[in-house]
């Protein structure tokens, strides 16, 4: 069974800060082939599609397409603001290994 990813309060707060919901945008989290480990994350603001899985809180939305859902089942989407930069991060229990940049992984 493919569970939708969990989105942290910190990630929703960041979306609110940048005004994503007011623009009709959502944070799209997708998985594509490529990267140095076989798969890579595509994280961007985008308009939701009709068949997307939508995770919503306080007017902010995160969307995952049906093809990416099995790769993100049980994952946690968070926002990190560290010395090296601020970014959305994914803790993915399905990934068996990942690269140093955190955007590429293998299953």
Automatic annotation (TrEMBL):
InterPro entries: ATAP (IPR016092), ATAP_core_dom (IPR000361), FeS_cluster_insertion_CS (IPR017870), HesB-like_dom_sf (IPR035903). Pfam families: Fe-S_biosyn. It comes from the Bacteria. PROSITE patterns: HESB. SUPFAM superfamilies: HesB-like domain (SSF89360). One of its GO terms (biological process) is iron-sulfur cluster assembly. One of its GO terms (molecular function) is iron ion binding. Residues 6-102 form the Core domain. NCBIfam families: iron-sulfur cluster assembly accessory protein (TIGR00049). This is Heme biosynthesis protein HemY. It comes from Pseudoponticoccus marisrubri. The lineage of its organism: Bacteria, Pseudomonadati, Pseudomonadota, Alphaproteobacteria, Rhodobacterales.
